[in-house]
Design goal:
The protein is of the alpha+beta class. It is 32% helix and 29% strand. The protein contains ten helices and eleven strands.
């Protein structure tokens, strides 16, 4: 039996993000359209006979202990299923950190899948998603991947058809945004205009790219953009260079633009780099998955 495994952990963007209320436990109720993109971290897993977890990463400031979701995911499965074998994980990060792209949740999802395979637990997707939600609201979606409507705190997922082929330009400015800060400063009751999430679902089902991009909205921009005006600068730059639309992903600060024209997308990428608006810029495809 193979005792090593390599998996890709794919990032996500939010094509639409609405906050519809705040629960008594402090969590916000959301309605989001999630989309996996072909920007990924690589995780290499190696089975160990000694009862330990070892995590290494190429990013110096990331914790490699119980404060890392990858470590937590492996530990969770070991404890839950009384596994005495250990695991060594090498995490190579490309997804921007603290960027609104669910990089940590994607890594956690990959760790659950990888540990389940190497520990021979043979857990199905549903079980992994149920375990994943205890580690983070975005983890079940990162296990499922593709295009989905996300409700509740993000754990109620409805798979949708893949969006039409397009190019997605991703730009992360050299700032970090705290999700906690954004949600704490959002007046959920004071949101005047809510995104047309239902209309976007219909456009996705109809395969209408312009119908999707016309409805792109993120209510969290009302908090993040005033604090970090560079986000608006990147959005304007992308739109001026031919993006069908551009928006902040999650709580930010990453901005993405959707392009039907590859040449325009490449031109926008060069301009954002030349203007030094972002230090991490990627041009990727949407992740398509059969449902």
């Amino acid at each position: 039996m193979a005792d090593t495994l390599q998996l890709k952990a794919y990032a996500k963007i939010n094509l639409g993000l609405d906050v519809v209320g705040k629960r008594e436990d402090g969590y916000h109720e959301v309605r989001m359209i999630m989309q996996t993109v072909k920007l990924f971290d690589k995780l290499t897993f190696r089975l160990l006979q000694e009862d330990t977890i070892r995590l290494k990463t190429n990013v110096g400031f990331l914790p490699c202990d119980d404060n890392n979701l990858v470590y937590k995911a492996v530990k969770q499965l070991k404890e839950r299923y009384h596994v005495t074998q250990g695991m060594e994980i090498d995490l190579y990060k490309c997804i921007p950190v603290a960027a609104g792209m669910a990089g940590g949740s994607a890594d956690c999802a990959a760790a659950l899948v990888g540990a389940s395979k190497l520990f021979h637990l043979h857990l199905d997707k549903k079980t992994l998603m149920e375990i994943g939600v205890q580690l983070g609201a975005d983890v079940p979606y990162c296990i499922m991947r593709g295009t989905a409507l996300s409700e509740g705190i993000g754990e109620v997922l409805t798979p949708l058809p893949s969006i039409p082929k397009c190019k997605i330009l991703i730009a992360k400015p050299p700032i970090s945004v705290s999700t906690k800060y954004v949600y704490e400063h959002l007046d959920a009751k004071g949101i005047e205009k809510h995104p047309d999430v239902d209309g976007m679902v219909r456009a996705i089902k109809a395969g209408n790219l312009k119908g999707i991009t016309d409805r792109m909205e993120n209510v969290l921009e009302s908090v993040t953009i005033p604090a970090y005006p560079v986000i608006e600068e990147i959005k304007i730059c992308m739109k001026e260079q031919g993006a069908l639309n551009a928006m902040m992903s999650g709580s930010g600060p990453t901005v993405f633009g959707i392009y039907a024209d590859v040449a325009k997308a490449e031109q926008a990428k060069r301009l954002i780099q030349d203007k030094q608006l972002a230090n991490q810029v990627y041009l990727v495809d949407a992740f398509h998955q059969e449902i």
